Amino acid sequence: MLNLENVNTYIGKTKIVHDASFSIRAGEIVGLIGPNGAGKTTLMKTILGLMKFTGAIIMDEKSVTENNHQALSSVGALIEHPAIYPFLTGHQNLELYAREKEDLDSIVSVLGMNSYINNKSKGYSLGMKQKLGIAIALLNHPKLVILDEPMNGLDIEATIGVRKLIKQYADQGTAFLISSHVLSELQKVMTKVILISSGKIIVNQEIEKFNEISRRKYKVITENNEAAMRILQNNSIAYSPQDDYLTVNSQDIFQIQDELFEHRIHLEEMAPIEANFEQIVVNILDKERG
Ligand SMILES: Nc1ncnc2c1ncn2[C@@H]1O[C@H](COP(=O)(O)OP(=O)(O)OP(=O)(O)O)[C@@H](O)[C@H]1O
């Protein structure tokens, strides 16, 4: 559905996005994560034809260019501040874009906007404006929805409502590209992760594959960890000593058991360490920065 091939984005003469290539298929929910200034917003704006870029962006077999946005007719987006007319009510703002009344009413209802949807939007709070922006992005059942930090300013109920809508739309085939710093929130919905750092995509993986990384380390406790470390060292097996245990790589666990057995050192515990999502992201970024 969406294909990026070797996309480079420039602001002035500075290259911000470096050689980005990836694709998004119908129904996928892609989490775009990365540190501040990594290039997430710039990448999203590039897909929307709002930046100077080289390479190819193809949406539904049509090319997106800076001057031709026709390919984007089935794309909804919320980037930075929602584009809202302050002297119109929320409902009137939505009516400007909506093709079906039922679609509009259902989004307003799931997002819990009924009590203020007929008030002028200039009086809306940050979260109310954000919800209106999300509602605009979701109108008319787009094929792709791009959301930059959608949960900004949303309360718990609204966050749950947005999550529900995202899943519901994805089940019906809408694809999502969502950036967020709230990883725990993204984790609840995303099916794929794209990790960007200094404008470069360093991870582009299905969420199941990505989660496997968390099971690549094992915790080992023996009756004599000092002696165990000497044995591992002598056999060139990688380990890292912690307070009262060692961490080792999962591919070495059988060799480690054999060596310890041979040297008559009893194993007290050997179990996979479940790293959390945040920790994995931090580790990958640390490694990338050398
Ligand atoms: N208008 C601009 N002029 C010059 N440089 C810019 C401009 N907008 C963004 N940049 C630079 O582009 C880089 C990427 O910025 P971008 O806003 O895309 O990052 P981001 O990943 O969305 O960050 P954040 O998580 O903080 O929102 C940064 O180094 C930023 O300084």
Describe the structure.
There is one protein chain. This protein is an alpha/beta fold. It has ten helices and 14 strands. The strands form three sheets. The chain has a six-stranded mixed beta sheet with strand order 6-7-8-3-9-10, sandwiched between helices. It has a four-stranded antiparallel beta sheet with strand order 2-1-4-5, with helices on one face. A hairpin with a 4-residue loop joins strand 12 and strand 13. The radius of gyration is 24 Å and the shape is elongated. The two termini are 35 Å apart. The structure holds adenosine-5'-triphosphate (ATP). Adenosine-5'-triphosphate binds next to helix 1.
Number of strands: 14
Question: Which spans of ≥5 residues are poorly predicted at pLDDT below 50?
Answer: none
Mean pLDDT: 90
H/E topology pattern: EEEHEEEHHHEHEHEEHEHEEHEH
Biggest β-sheet, characterized? 6 strands, mixed
Q: Work out the helicity level.
A: 25-40%
Total helical segments: 10
Net shape:
elongated
Instruction: Give the C-alpha Rg.
Output: 24 Å
Ligands bound to this protein structure: adenosine-5'-triphosphate
Measured distance between first and last alpha carbons: 35 Å
- Major β-sheet strand ordering: 6-7-8-3-9-10
Structural class: alpha/beta
Query: What share of residues are in beta strands?
Result: 25-35%
Which characteristics define this entry?
six-stranded mixed β-sheet, four-stranded antiparallel β-sheet, elongated, transport, ATP-binding cassette domain-containing protein, ABC_transporter-like_CS, nucleotide-binding, AAA+_ATPase
